[in-house]
Specification:
Strand content: 15-25%
Radius of gyration: 24 Å
Bound molecules: uridine-diphosphate-N-acetylglucosamine
Structural class: alpha/beta
Organism: Eschrichtius robustus (California gray whale)
Largest sheet: 8 strands, mixed
Pfam family, one: UDPGP
Strand order of the largest sheet: 2-20-12-15-11-3-4-5
Number of strands: 24
Mean pLDDT: 95
Shape: globular
InterPro entries: Nucleotide-diphossugar_trans, UDP-sugar_pyrophosphorylase, UDPGP_fam
Family: Belongs to the UDPGP type 1 family.
Protein name: UDP-N-acetylhexosamine pyrophosphorylase-like protein 1
Number of helices: 16
Distance between the termini: 64 Å
Length: 504
């Protein structure tokens, strides 16, 4: 156990000795907990972290003044499109993706260390269920898409293949996520192929550079951002694990997009055939204000400018042919080669600049009373996963259709958008479209046919409720055999058992 003397000396070197100001009055248990929390903080790193936070805060919280002049859209030769190409080109990409999956060269990596503050839940977002007829959670949908894509690749190449699932968690999400997976028997995935690892935490800091005590016996800590991935990969030898398994390509994605296509063969195949070391899926931005990062170039170098760091004027600029000039919305879906990730962890990670978020951080006052601030009082420093893009030798973006691939769950239902209802409707509208395309007809409770036009994206509930298990179809494929020319009463839940019965 860490000695108080030792920890005090380290904190003195970091200029943060105030963190021990209640130590003498703590009972042995809480005191040990506080010392254990403080012990791993490296004095020099802590000093630098607090200094940087205060310095960043001294600057006005506005986009860099010269940013607009340095921005350009991505040149067209760097952008592929899933929908705007000839079907045979798309098939070629897909075939390449399946081939790499069949060779066990593809892994998926979930960023799941966030706290889901905007959604307002105290448990990890992946455990959330948006009210689908099947009541599946985001984690279950993701697990089943992995199983299906393994199956599809395996069938094409006559092999049994594995897409390992790496899950980055944080102090907040590791325990509940691990428990949830165990309780659900890893959704029938082999637990050896589900690798959870934890990202680092950093202290929240006051505007004048002092780490904040949340309680007398606890420092206010927050995960170091989804760009904490790169330190976490090194901390837990994750790339070595990938190497042992023969993984060459990694699809990194965020937890909250209900339509996410894990290990998407089309995206993987496109990136591999283009010889990319780094890629990002994008959708056309819905509006200038939409809170998505913009994939673009700064000083001629591809990167993502986060929604919090672009000015409203720049976001509203129009392209000469109409539409937004900066319309490539980042959906937090990235492709990396393992070699590129290796270079990042070895060389580039220290060059990533943290971003500053000013937040309300609960703290104890000088008398030790807990305070819930009404105004922002603290700084959290985060690295972003996409900040490695400028180090790529060959970056590509890949544009996909929003209605097919992007509906994020960010907010509670009280918000207008990106909430549980919009996510549920996006998935049900997609499955309704897939069913109609496969030749299904839907009836109401009185046997009358329901309308057969697919509902436009963003509209209300589809005319018929149809939910298709990812174990039956990954992206709408293979449904004719169950649905063609048949009538179904809404709601239809097409799970594996129903599919088997229909096929028989
Ligand atoms: C930095 C980043 O990627 N921003 C993207 C993110 O924004 P947004 O602000 O929505 O990002 P979130 O805070 O939701 O985090 C994205 C993902 O990173 C994970 N996470 C977050 C913090 C952390 O310390 N550890 C961690 O693992 C979250 O669990 C989540 O899976 O998604 C949007 C699309 O939905 C994109 O347009 C944004 O460009």
């Amino acid at each position: 156990m860490a000695s108080e003397l030792d920890v005090r000396a380290r904190l003195q070197r970091a200029g943060q000795e105030h963190l021990l100001r209640f130590c003498a009055e703590l009972a042995p248990g809480p005191r040990a907990a506080l010392l254990a929390q403080l012990e791993p903080l490296e004095p020099e790193a802590l000093r630098e972290h607090c200094r940087r936070a205060a310095a960043a805060c001294a600057r006005p919280p506005a986009p860099a003044p010269d940013l607009a002049a340095r921005l350009r859209p991505l040149p067209p030769e760097r952008v592929g499109s899933a929908s705007g190409v000839a079907p045979q080109t798309r098939r070629l990409w897909e075939e390449e993706g399946f081939h790499q999956i069949a060779l066990n060269k593809v892994a998926v990596l979930l960023l799941a260390g966030g706290q889901g503050t905007r959604l307002g839940v105290t448990y990890p977002k992946g455990m959330y269920q948006v009210g689908l007829p099947s009541q599946k959670t985001l984690y279950q949908l993701q697990a089943e898409r992995i199983r299906r894509v393994e199956q599809l690749a395996g069938e094409r190449y006559g092999t049994r293949c594995t897409v390992p699932w790496y899950i980055m968690t944080s102090e907040f999400t590791l325990g509940p996520t691990a428990k949830f997976f165990k309780e659900h028997d890893f959704f029938h995935l082999d637990p050896n192929n589900v690798v959870m690892f934890e990202q680092r935490m950093l202290p929240a800091v006051t505007f004048d550079g002092r780490a904040i005590l949340e309680r007398k016996d606890k420092v206010a800590m927050a995960p170091d951002g989804n760009g904490g991935l790169y330190c976490a990969l090194a901390d837990h030898q994750v790339l070595e694990d990938m190497e042992r398994r023969g993984v060459e390509f990694v699809h990194v994605y965020c937890v909250d997009n209900i339509l996410v296509r894990l290990a998407d063969p089309v995206f993987i195949g496109f990136c591999v055939l283009r010889g990319a070391d780094c890629g990002a899926k994008v959708v056309e931005k819905a509006s200038p204000e939409e809170p998505v990062g913009v994939v673009c170039q700064v000083d001629g170098v591809p990167q993502v400018v986060e929604y919090s760091e672009i000015s409203p004027e720049t976001a509203r600029l129009c392209a000469p042919g109409g539409g937004l000039l900066y319309n490539a919305g980042n959906i937090c879906n990235h492709f990396f080669t393992r070699d590129f990730l290796q270079m990042v962890t070895r060389e580039f990670e220290p060059l990533l600049k943290p971003h500053v978020a000013v937040k309300k951080v609960p703290y104890v006052d000088e008398e030790g009373n807990p305070v819930k601030p009404l105004e922002p009082n603290g700084i959290k420093m985060e690295k972003f996963v996409f900040d490695v893009l400028p180090f790529a030798k060959n970056f590509v973006a890949f544009q996909v259709l929003r209605g097919e691939e992007f509906s994020p769950l960010k907010n509670a239902d009280s918000a207008e958008r990106d909430n549980p209802s919009t996510a549920r409707r996006a998935l049900l509208a997609q499955h309704h479209r897939w069913a109609l395309q496969a030749g299904a007809h839907f009836l109401d409770a009185h046997g009358a046919r329901l309308p057969e036009q697919p509902s436009p994206p963003g509209s209300g509930e589809p005319p018929a409720i149809c939910e298709i298990s990812p174990l039956v179809s990954y992206s709408g494929e293979g449904l004719e055999v169950y649905l063609q020319g048949r009538e179904f009463e809404s709601p239809l839940i097409l799970d594996v058992d129903t599919a088997r019965t229909l096929q028989a």
